[in-house]
Amino acid sequence: MTTTLSGKHYLAGQWHAAGATFASTNPARLSETIGAFPRGTKADADAAVAAARAAFPAWRRTSRIHRAELFDNLAQIVKRETDALARLMARECGKVVTECRAEVVEGLHMIQYVFGTGRMPMGDVLALEIAEKDTFMRRKPWGVAAVITPWNFPFAVPLWMLGPSLVEGNTAVFKPSEDTPAIGQRLIELFIEAGFPPGVINLVHGEAEAGEALVRNPGVNCVLFTGSYEVGKRIAEISASMHDRIVASEAGSKSAVIVAEDAKLDLAVTCGLISAFKTSGQRCVSGSRVIVHEKLIDAYAEKLVALTKRLRIGDPLDANNFMGPLINQAALEKVERYNQIAKDEGATILLLGERLTDAAHADGCYLSPTIYRIKYGPKVRCIREEVFGPHLALIPFKDNEEASRIYNDTEYGLSLAIITENYRTMRYFRDECEYGMGYVNLPCIGAEVHLPFGGVKKSSNGHPSAAALVEAVTHKTAWTVNHAEEAKMAQGLTTEIK
Ligand code: UN1
Question: Which of 10, 34, 63, 298 has its Cα between 20 and 30 A from that of 413?
Fold first, then answer.
């Protein structure tokens, strides 16, 4: 028996709910409502930013180690709550509970990482030309971070952003995806229990109005965003008129696995399948292309299709299932649209994804995987555009030069996996492909929090997330102290006053 939640904003240490609401539903059972959440307005967003601004001076003056220790409290609470969080996440976003558990653990790792940084250096000691002078590079927080996050990693991705932001002394306004407000709100409840003071972290639910108002508010110093390229671009455009606004944005991908001529076939098949269909293909790093050497592609296709047909698709709360549903009806229709585009573009369909309509699946957004074979062509849309679902192209290549050209021929550059036993092949792709995260003999998913999470081209604007985000949420200052009795200058500059 599950209860329907009643959502609230959290502003300056108070819960608020007023005005229109939106519902969060279970994508595996559309008739099940998870909760009703307030549809944030410009006024709510502005109040949240005002609260975060007001809390900033005291928070940045708080001992860095004390700030970090609050994350230690949070780590203990997340450990206590892991199973409940995983179940709530599975119900709200449809990922299989084992994956949800892994995501909670990934969030926990980020919390543990930032706790660890509390007693780590927050700058550098540098040498100077004048012996009597000392100088330091010291990082300072920017101020207020707006954290705008997607539904597919509704716990770990907010923590990738909130962790570095808050430990460095920024305050924050968090707007979770409108598809996963319940897990977002639960995360804030845990921050409160951990002892984070009022105003340091604020929560605004909602859709475009709340998001747009946050981005337009000049009281926000950093916008930390993961989501679609279109929204990321809009955030960058609005922010361009603000003189020192930082935007760290991760958006979109057409990630791929390249199976070289000498690849071990079973390993290559496992890596392709996991890259394409784990999380129903709804990770931003999901691989919707496997670029396979022409000598291997027949055997590869046969094994992959046979294995994919066996995947268990069903209730996300059942740990025996491999895949759950897609997030909503619109996502399902988008994948079907791209399945049709692939057919129109001349693909040979090896496995056609279908809606699952039997009694166990009829109430959810279930779609089985599609696999097709298609020749590379410079204008073929289905191998260049992001689909975000269980939709996989197998593309043959003749030589490594052609494989890297195919890999690079999209507007995205997030994640890449190479399957090979040859170190020269591995190095060739490492250097010739455009990506932010590269893997060898692995799927193109599965990064850990202390690695930079980002990409190039439309995938990211150059501020990787997770641990690397410290670069975006702080600015570096130079602090120079003279110990001589007189002012002494570098570069031979005199202080003689004539
Ligand atoms: C995402 O795809 O939105 O690298 C995040 C991974 C996970 C994070 C994925 N650690 O697959």
Answer: 298
Cα distance between residue 18 and residue 39, in whole Å = 9
Residue 278 has pLDDT above 90, yes or no: yes
Regarding the beta carbon of 53 and ligand 1, being less than 6 Å apart is answered no
What is the distance in A from the centroid of ligand 1 to the CA of 446? 6
Residue nearest to atom 6 of ligand 1 (CA): 446
238, containing H or E segment: helix 229-239
Distance 384 CA to ligand 1 centre (A): 20
Q: For the segment 90-142, what is each residue's pLDDT rounded down to a tens digit?
A: 999 999 999 999 999 999 999 999 999 999 999 999 999 999 999 999 999 99
The CATH classification of domain 255-440, taken from the options 3.40.50.720, 3.40.309.10, 3.40.50.2300, 3.65.10.10: 3.40.309.10
DSSP string, 371-406: EEE----TT-GGGTS---SSEEEEEEESSHHHHHHH
| Given 284, 365, 382, 444, the catalytic residue | 284
433 is catalytic: no
Q: Which CATH number fits domain 5-251+461-479: 3.30.43.10, 3.90.1150.10, 3.90.960.10, 3.40.605.10?
A: 3.40.605.10
